[in-house]
Amino acid sequence: MLLILHPDIDNQSDAYKETLKYLQALPSVTIKEHVVQGQQQRLTELYLLGETKPLDAGEIEALPAVERVIRISEEYRILGRHHDDRRVSGFDYQGLRFDQDSLHVFAGLCAVDTPEHVEIMMKALAQQGQRCTRMGAYKPRTNPYAFQGHGKGCLPYVFELAGKHNIAAIAMEVTHESHIEEIDTCLEKCGRPTGVILQIGTRNTQNFELLKAIGRQQHYPALLKRGFGITLNESLNAAEYLASEGNTQVIFCLRGMKSDFGSPHRNMVDFAQIPAVKRLTRMPVCIDPSHSVGTREHSPDKVMDIAHATAQGVIAGANMVLVDFHPHPTKALVDGPQALLLDELPKFLEDIAISREAYERRRALWQ
Ligand code: PEP
Ligand code: MN
After folding, report:
1. For the segment 76-94, what is each residue's pLDDT rounded down to a tens digit?
2. 3-state secondary structure at position 304
3. Which ligand is nearest to the CA of 255?
4. By the 8 A CB rule, do 343 and 120 touch?
5. In this structure, which residue's CA is closest to atom 10 in ligand 1?
6. pTM of the predicted model as reported, rounded to 2 decimal places
7. Which of 38, 159, 165, 365 has a 20 to 30 Å separation from 18 between CA atoms?
8. Ligand 1 site: residues with CB under 6 angstroms?
9. Which class is domain 92-365?
């Protein structure tokens, strides 16, 4: 059972103390407090765990600090919506809002290769007014002899160039717990010119120890990719691992499913599940058209499949687009064939704006 307390409740107030006293006296029930700092207000949530079935929701709702009571299912206890449309979603990071209504584009390099390419990429983003990017330093590769990413060696120039070009947030995959500290140490040393969203790749969706480590820290938000060969439910449970350890700043990313049925695309695009994730959980939903489609092919209409898939996601309410670009895809060390070109960036962003407007109009239509 979840109790949402009155906004901005003071935990020294009589109302709070009286409520706590009542709850602490309940047999076989433990209380876990969770505070959500929103843009305008601070929300305190109390999770009642244990024998909550016999509890009378009406009686608890009448307690002085309680605004409302939600019966929660076992799944996605913290991140779940639990059929309550009023549950707030999202978080603020680096002056940017991430929730189920916002939309951010994270265009950038699949893998950092040279400082020159990083700079060209960030400059192009800045020219388009973009504040976010993706930059891979730690790359999980199928082949052990393939380029594994420059690791911590590239972090100083990536962060400094981000600061120079006013990039506020970088989505960066981490494949080991130690990478969190490497990123943190480097950002601190550079004077925190930018921010990092810790990306968990599809190969690590169920790496529970990595999830717990990212969940234990609350400094950096997390971007969790769905697992490419597991159910949506299993991937959402993986997201809950982050929240259960204390980090509720989680964005969920659809990136396609590995299946021969996806051919000729790299993966089977799964963006039709955006509304389902929004209904089941409070997480903002990201789409990755690059790793799901995986090709620059286009049909006779001249629109690349990646752009079509992006539009399909945005028109269905996606909140973030993670997409590979490269100044010279033939020189890219990872995933060059699916990278968009820098002169395609303005058109790609315009296409997203068109799709977003269509989403907003569609949404208004159905109210
Ligand atoms: C990536 O985004 O660089 C990546 C490796 O994606 P995924 O984990 O979805 O394969
Ligand atoms: Mn890639």
Report:
1. 999 999 998 888 889 999 9
2. strand
3. 1
4. no
5. 202
6. 0.95
7. 38
8. 110, 136, 173, 201-202, 225, 255, 288, 291
9. alpha beta
